[in-house]
Amino acid sequence: MQDKDFLARQFESHRAHLGAVAYRMLGSRAEAEDAVQEAWLRLARSDSATIGNLGGWLTTVVARICLDMLRARKSRREEPLAPGTPEPAAEATDQEAMLADTIGVALLVVLDSLKPAERVAFVLHDMFDLPFEDIAAIVGRTPAAARQLASRARRRVKGAQPDQEADAARRRGIVEAFLTAARDGDLAGLLRVLDPEVVFSPDAVAERMGSVGEQRGAERVAALFKGRAQAAKPALIDGVVGIAVAFGGQLRIAMRVTFAGDRIAGLEAIADPGRLAALSMTPLET
Question: Could you count the other beta carbons within 10 Å of the beta carbon of residue 241?
Answer without folding.
Answer: 24
